[in-house]
Design brief:
Layout lengths: L4 E2 L2 H12 L7 E6 L4 E8 L3 H4 L8 E13 L5 E13 L5 H19 L6 E5 L7 H9 L11 E2 L26 E6 L6 E6 L15 H12 L7 E7 L2 E8 L3 H4 L8 E14 L2 E14 L5 H18 L5 E7 L7 H9 L3
Amino acid sequence: MSAFDWANESEVQEVLEQIRKSDSNTKWAVFGYEGDKTVKLVQSGPGGLEDFRSLLTDDDIFYVVYSLEVKDQDEGGEVFSATKVIFITWVGTKCKPMLKAKSSQHRLPIYKYALRSLQLAAELQILEPEDLTEANILGKLRGTHVEAEGVPAASTGGSGGAAAAASAPATTSSSSALPSTSRASFVRKDQSTTHVAFKGTSNVNTDANLSFVNPDEANGLLADVRNDGTPTNWVLFGHEGKSLKVLGSGSGGYTELEGFFQDEEIVYGVLGLEVADEDGGSEYKTTKYIFISWVGPKVKPLTKARSSQVRVALYKHAKNHLQLAAEIQALERSEISEELIKQKLNATF
């Protein structure tokens, strides 16, 4: 039994094919609900963000497939452009909890359906209207690329395209600029493995909507994952009442942290992974960071809905400590693996 149904599947396939074609004027398509689990094409057209933004209302959920030209600059200073497609999930601020829970069940199947017709370079989930900007879209599509000074943020086809928005200036960081930490070990209660935690003072303020049981420990671990001088490459957080606590951290990568993905649990984390790319025929490796959220299949719908706000707040907070190249959200075991994570990270080169 499918998670959702299309009101007119042939119409959907046609519009996705039009978005895929480079010579087509169709650059975006907005999908919404018709009934409880039936998804329909709301509208499609040329142009850019400003041409479909008005369709996204505060009291409903929409899914958008959006194609745009991204301009960037390589390490040699040469400007290049590429057409990329992003999948956007819009959850209106006035949506009821049960409706939000429905979107968490349908988002991934709809994403996978679109992936059958075209290559999706990134995914963006919007819970606050101010987060839907050209700069945020470009940030997702560029991944770890830094916008070149004087290079337009994006250009969109059609006569109604929105003007490109400039993104914030890039900043650089070094290990010496990170908060100082001191080591203290702890053992997860249901495992014999000893993980390394870091307790120290962080110079990064916690988001007003985010609460940690131990802010210094949380901030210190996020900084340590970023620090090339330490072995720690992952940290995971879980709920304790209305706050988040550190569940574990370590240097063993995905193999260590996957044991925390239990059917009745919600966990969030950051993983640093070394990925390879081929540039000019020679392979090089770099460490990239991905934000992970796991919502187990046995988590209650209302709890799932509340977790969405925490996920967004923690994602933004983590970006204060390190550069996140991608995000992966999983509701089932089949939706997360080291291979899937590598695919997400490799797509950001």
